[in-house]
Structures
1.
Amino acid sequence: MLTATYSLVAITAEQDKARSMLGRLRQYFQATWRGLQGFDFAFLETAFNRLMQFDKFCSNRKLEVYLIPAMRGVSTEAEALIEELEALSAKAACLLRFVGDQLAGAFELGSIKVNEVCHAMESYCERIVMRLDKEERELLPLAQCLFSIEDWFSIAAKFLSEDAAAYDRRRRVLPARASVSQRTIANTR
């Protein structure tokens, strides 16, 4: 039972992080859009890049990488729910592509539909909120019902393996950064 608890806590932590990141993005967009008088390519490009980073984070969550694949084929209810979640993600991805196309066109042609781009970014955020809500209200409770202790153990083992690999990557990067800083300090003396 501890493995199920660990898995659910890890997923919930990622859900909370996604909601927090999305909330900050939306605040940033809304505060800037109020002051946006006309075409500001730099802001729109920055906003788009932040959304792309957030989208990448969402697609790399443990829920997305491990839990949903484990639920495939387990029940018709799970399949239908996964299809709904994927439809929300597909709509969100279309909105990001639209924004990217508009920004590319603006760079090449010098024209952009600022209101449509801003609306598309906000619509993307709304789709992601809908997906997160559905994951929390429907997917996680369904997973708790469908999976046995052995299933949760397997899922938790994958989570732990990923966490260990991420820890190792961070450990290798930190000394490399420190040695670069030490060389920089030594070169300035």
2.
Amino acid sequence: MPEIFPDSQKYPTTPDGRYFVVKGRLWRTTNPHLTATEREKLTHQLMMARRDVATQKKKQDARAEKWAHAEVNRLKIALGERGPVWWTDGDLTDYTRHKAKTTPYAEWYASLGMPIETDE
């Protein structure tokens, strides 16, 4: 699997490439089956939608902010970071947002020697 996050020391990627870890929690990686062009286009659109969320929050336009959040969600699904899992081995389990230490990745995560994360 290609390395999704270039700073693998800070955000290690699970051996199967499905997740990266931030503050001890698993987050689904972008679908590696997307072409570079598709990924770049969707990522650009996602960044624009996130900026729109912030803009609408500042304007206190709840309706427009809700639409912007929906657009962020749509794009994250298109990238494979939310919604149905992108892997095809039959395992439909999604550990997104789970603490790595409470998942089948616990032994791998412990082997990294990462600092112990506390509940914040």
3.
Amino acid sequence: MQNFAAELIGTMILVLLGDGVVANVLLKKSKGEDSGWIVIATGWGFAVAMAVYVAGWISGGHINPAVTIGFIAIGEISPKEALPYISGQMVGAFLGAVLVWIAYMPHWKGTKNADSKLMVFCTMPAIRKRRWNILTEIIGTAMLLLGVLGINNTHNSISKGAGPYLVGILVLSIGLSLGGPTGYAINPARDLGPRIAHFLLPIPGKRDSDWSYSWVPVLGPIIGCLVGALLYKFVFSCFMK
């Protein structure tokens, strides 16, 4: 139960601050309107750091099913142990999106662009080419797992207290370098939970929730996490013996 609760709260914070910065940039008459991609990527990086600081001392702060699945692949946790993690992440992502909806309540009606409203909740590709979109998500999530495992490798002698901050920098880097094509979900819960919220919530002038694309930011990160985790374990283990 404690891992479920920690991952729920951590992922809720992640989405509250992450989707919140997107709302700040995209919704009309917000103070941050049109402030750009660097603001969004920075906001997501800080969101990850804060979420891991809050939840990490209890559950490790996965806040992402891709991280949890990657850890299963390399034997860090068992599939049974992973169930409360992923359940908490999905519920937390949904609740975080609901909080963003509440926080920006006056701005939904004033924003006419239905795509912008959807992008507050979930990702949308810049160019819709699903085979390339999924490859982008695979590459980005593989880099996420490589970075997380590198930061947490004891051979690096990184202070444990700095770990969440460095993971935030990692996510900021991924966003700035690889976020352009797809909006870098790199996290199935971060995309699917808020997409479900978009579908259910009464948002004035909203469009459909783009379910035809929704599998890309779920499947891509799942494949990418396995690639990154296994690559780190079986390649770098040669140097750690």
